[in-house]
């Protein structure tokens, strides 16, 4: 099998960096907003290119992706969260959250589909436990992740005939900057030992991408384990 080319969004984040490490033997396209951070990350990896992409601007995707050549896999990993009750959270937060967490993955998938079809590739969506259960205080984020699950389910049905595989991964609380922000907003202590190591989420995604073609791993839930 030739070396797959894998595009990772949110590559500079906690799970994103772990994904880049776990997939170091792929040709990597590390996508993110901060060119300096991306460059530093790519320098430490043998086969990595960088792609500056602000997910708030889907109108830039087609141009940005133009010269990338074959892409086998895309991992939609970038995401944002802001906790707040429906009674308090204003429309800007909802718009921003849905734009990054759902609209951008849909638009990016659309732009990449010719390559994914040609490669009979794989789209992986990093969802969340909040994409399966919506709890008080998590409205905008849970709504975005429920919608992301719908996007993945629809895409799986639509693209099966082209050989494109689609997987949703639902991590629980994972030790990253996003979880630090969540715990601050919840007013709770940061309990690193109670959370999933980002490397374990990344290893799960690697397992999904490398599953033999007769095994379609459509939905994978990763919960914090008892140590
Ligand atoms: N950590 C958890 O407990 C947890 C649990 C379940 C699911 N998840 C999901 O896992 C994924 C990764 O989260 P993480 O924990 O690794 O969070 P993180 O460390 O905060 O990383 C998030 C990444 O998304 C990028 N991003 C945000 N807005 C962007 C935009 N407009 N354009 C381009 N990139 C943007 C960030 O880039 P910048 O650095 O430029 O902001 C960063 O690289 C997310 O989808 C999240 O919802 C996380």
From TrEMBL:
PROSITE patterns: ADH_SHORT (PS00061). GO terms for cellular component: membrane. Residues 4-174 form the Ketoreductase domain. Keywords: Oxidoreductase. The keyword Hydrolase does not apply. GO terms for molecular function: oxidoreductase activity. InterPro entries: KR_dom, NAD(P)-bd_dom_sf, Sc_DH/Rdtase_CS, SDR_fam. Belongs to the short-chain dehydrogenases/reductases (SDR) family. This is Short-chain dehydrogenase/reductase SDR. It comes from Deinococcus maricopensis (strain DSM 21211 / LMG 22137 / NRRL B-23946 / LB-34).
């Amino acid at each position: 099998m030739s070396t797959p080319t894998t595009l990772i969004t949110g590559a500079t984040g906690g799970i994103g960096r772990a994904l880049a490490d776990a997939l170091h033997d792929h040709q990597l396209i590390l996508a993110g907003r901060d060119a300096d951070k991306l460059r530093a990350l790519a320098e430490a990896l043998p086969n990595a290119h960088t792609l500056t992409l602000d997910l708030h601007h889907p109108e830039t995707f087609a141009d940005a992706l133009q010269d990338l050549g074959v892409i086998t896999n895309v991992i939609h990993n970038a995401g944002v969260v802001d906790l707040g009750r429906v009674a308090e959270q204003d429309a800007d937060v909802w718009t921003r959250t849905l734009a990054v967490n759902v609209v951008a993955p849909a638009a990016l998938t659309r732009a990449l589909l010719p390559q994914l079809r040609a490669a009979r590739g794989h789209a992986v969506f990093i969802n969340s436990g909040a994409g399966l259960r919506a709890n008080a205080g998590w409205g905008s984020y849970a709504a975005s992740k429920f919608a992301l699950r719908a996007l993945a389910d629809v895409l799986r049905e639509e693209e099966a005939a082209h050989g494109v595989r689609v997987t949703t991964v639902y991590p629980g609380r994972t030790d990253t900057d996003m979880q630090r922000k969540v715990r601050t907003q919840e007013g709770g202590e940061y309990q690193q030992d109670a959370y999933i190591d980002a490397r374990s989420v990344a290893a799960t995604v690697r397992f999904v991408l490398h599953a033999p073609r007769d095994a379609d791993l459509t939905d994978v839930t990763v919960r914090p384990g008892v140590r």
